[in-house]
Specification:
By secondary structure, this protein is α+β, with helices and mostly antiparallel strands. It is 45% helix and 16% strand. A four-stranded mixed β-sheet has the order 1-4-3-2.
């Protein structure tokens, strides 16, 4: 559902990476985003912060709606109690965004 909704709502998103990396999931489990503590936050996500979407049950439209709201114009978002989802114009770029988000 989330992948589909990104493709449907973000025309420049031609690839989506959804993952459960160690550090991103730890932050998401605390329902914390990544603030603009470093210029790479803007370089990676395309915004001043990487937000954490509000919690909703896995696989629901509610989760997808919360994800889209938190994603906004950015390329990366954490998912409360879950992980992260990122997008890009290519699979390589989407994977780069996911990796860089985890490294932040």
């Amino acid at each position: 559902r989330m992948h589909y909704d990104i493709y449907r709502n973000v025309p420049e998103a031609l690839a989506v990476v959804h993952a459960h990396p160690t550090y991103g999931t730890a932050l998401a489990s605390q329902r914390r985003g990544i603030p603009a503590f470093h210029y790479m936050v803007a370089a990676v996500a395309g915004g001043k912060e990487i937000k954490c979407a509000n919690y909703a049950s896995v696989g629901t439209q509610e989760l997808s709606d919360e994800m889209l709201a938190a994603l906004g114009p950015r390329k990366s978002v954490l998912l409360a109690n879950h992980g992260m989802i990122c997008h890009g114009p290519t699979l390589e770029k989407a994977l780069w965004v996911a990796n860089e988000t985890e490294c932040l």
